[in-house]
Write a structure and sequence with these properties.
about 475 residues; alpha/beta; Aldehyde Dehydrogenase, Chain A, domain 1; Aldehyde Dehydrogenase, Chain A, domain 2; six-stranded mixed beta sheet; binds nicotinamide-adenine-dinucleotide; binds betaine aldehyde; betaine-aldehyde dehydrogenase (NAD+) activity; metal ion binding; Ald_DH_CS_GLU; NAD; EC 1.2.1.8
Length: about 475
């Protein structure tokens, strides 16, 4: 049985409850995990509070903390294959994709390990005679970290590595349906010698464990990655003690293709934008916005390639796309497409579950292209989080940007054109945290990640990813203290 990690010990849930973890490819039980609740979360928060207040980790020399974070990266690299296979078992994504995730994850730990001792504070030129003024950064304290099921360990690494490098203690709650790689990384952090109480893992549902992390007054910061409705609840709950708040929420990401774009690349990337991990990516380019003059040819070329996408087990080398995560999520995608059809969208390819008998035990949905879409449709506005792309038309640059911005979300977007001045003009007007020119879905540790509008608050990765886990303190010193006799 997979246990939780609290105060340096592997423990079962107080209630003794467990949960079966399913392989979405065939619904086989791949593990049984402890199912914690508020009580377990309270124990973990108390352990993290004690570890922080007793100054151990937060007062280690920063380069020593950096070295520990670096050691974790090395252990992740050592166990890359085991971690990649676990991630694929748990999520259904191809092992090749999971291997790429593990390399990214090790890179994130290395990046924040390097950053740990690079901040020497800042001397401010004080306007007051006989004084000094400086700014220093300190850890925020106890961090609650809540992660989703689609990129379980990748999203965890974006929170764990900077929180540790900055000297915080933490309690993580992974998605209850995909906890396996997070559990493994806590084993690696224990092996690396992270002190007891500094990192704590509580498994279990959002409405108990997650809600406790969001409301508990001993938690100083809550960092959440997940859906917009959960994000709103957490924002409200976090107000109880005015926690620092970081929200990485959903997206409905436009991908604009101009007629002068390199045609074959744009078609290829339109597919990469939305069919990796069966479209279960926050930054999936699920809204294709194509210039009218090439629209019909583009759709023909796209459909021609989409119908050949190989579905199957993530462990089969010929598989290009795995299943969706769960029965509930599959039903959501089915309804999303059905509603789109009722709104007037045309299914150019896909639009149903596959008939292939070998796939009937998994949560599969065919890669789908919906045409005749307009911005006012729900299918264009809602985050579908499945292998579904909607296609809209535009005829001017202004219209393309207006359509792209017509969304409550602002996570990411793409522009495909050979006219770089046009691309830069569009980018300057696109209200999104990341915009790719002639590319899609790229992210790396050095660049910040996060959303405009309802896609979130704050930024992970990059310099800002560390700053999210730091408080800023101004230290003023009077060099000649004398009474001022005001009173
Ligand atoms: N912006 C990003 O970087 C990013 C990255 C990955 C995923 N996402 C988003 O995540 C969503 C998919 O993930 P999901 O379905 O796991 O999201 P979700 O919101 O259902 O769950 C995310 C996490 O929140 C927990 N949770 C649920 N209710 C809670 C509550 N009341 N209080 C506290 N925690 C609670 C869940 O148990 C889970 O661990 C999509 O919307 C996707 O766009 C965003
Ligand atoms: C942030 N990213 C793109 C790695 C995963 C989003 O779901």
């Amino acid at each position: 049985m997979k246990k939780m990690f609290i105060n340096g010990e592997w423990v079962e849930a107080c209630s003794g409850e467990t949960r079966e973890i399913l392989n979405p490819y065939n619904q086989e039980v791949i593990a049984t995990a402890a199912e914690g609740n508020e009580k377990d979360a309270k124990f973990a928060i108390a352990a993290a509070r004690k570890a922080f207040d007793h100054d151990e980790w937060s007062h280690w020399p920063a380069h020593e903390r950096g070295k520990k974070v670096h050691d974790i990266a090395i252990l992740i690299e050592r166990d890359r294959e085991e971690l990649a296979e676990l991630e694929s078992l748990d999520t259904g994504k191809t092992v090749e994709e999971s291997r790429g995730d593990m390399d990214d994850i090790a890179g994130v730990f290395r990046y924040f390990a390097e950053m740990a001792d690079k901040d020497g504070g800042e001397i401010i030129e004080s306007p007051i005679p006989n004084s000094t003024s400086k700014v220093v950064h300190e850890p925020v304290g106890v961090c609650g970290q809540i992660t989703p099921w689609n990129y379980p360990l990748l999203q965890a690494s974006w929170k764990l590595a900077p929180a540790l490098a900055a000297g915080n203690t933490l309690v993580m709650k992974p998605s209850e349906i995909t906890p396996l790689t997070s559990i493994k990384v806590f084993e690696l952090m224990e092996e690396a010698g992270v002190p007891a109480g500094v990192v704590n893992l509580v498994l279990g549902p959002g409405d108990s464990v997650g809600a406790e992390l969001s409301t508990n007054d001993d938690v100083d910061l809550i960092s959440f990655t997940g859906g917009i409705e959960t994000g709103k609840k957490i924002m409200q709950a976090a107000s109880s003690n005015v926690k620092n708040l970081a929200l990485e929420l959903g997206g409905k990401n436009p991908n604009i293709v101009f007629a002068d774009a390199e045609f074959e690349t744009a078609v290829d990337q339109a597919m990469n934008a939305v069919f990796f991990h069966a479209g279960q990516i926050c930054s999936a380019g699920a809204r294709l916005i194509v210039e009218e003059s090439i629209h019909d040819d583009f759709v023909i070329a796209l459909v021609d390639r989409v119908k050949n996408i190989e579905l199957g087990s993530g462990f089969d080398e010929s598989t290009q796309m795995g299943p969706l995560i769960s029965k509930e999520h599959l039903n959501k995608v089915v309804n999303y497409v059905e509603n789109g059809k009722q709104e007037g969208a045309t299914v150019a390819v896909g639009g149903e579950k596959p008939g292939n008998p070998e796939l009937q035990n998994g949560f599969f949905y065919l890669p789908t292209v919906l045409t005749d879409c307009t911005t006012d449709m729900n299918v264009v506005q809602e985050e579908g989080f499945g292998p579904v792309i909607t296609v809209e038309k535009f005829s001017t640059e202004e219209e393309a940007v207006r359509l792209a911005n017509d969304s409550i979300y602002g996570l990411s977007g793409g522009v495909f054109t050979n006219d770089i001045a046009k691309a830069e003009r569009c980018v300057a007007k696109m209200r999104m945290g990341t915009v790719w020119i002639n590319d899609v879905n790229l992210y790396f540790p050095q660049a910040p990640w996060g959303g405009y509008k309802q896609s979130g608050i704050g930024r992970e990765l990059g310099k800002t990813g560390l700053e999210e886990y730091q408080e800023t303190k101004h230290v003023y010193r009077n060099l000649k203290p004398i009474p001022i006799h005001w009173f």
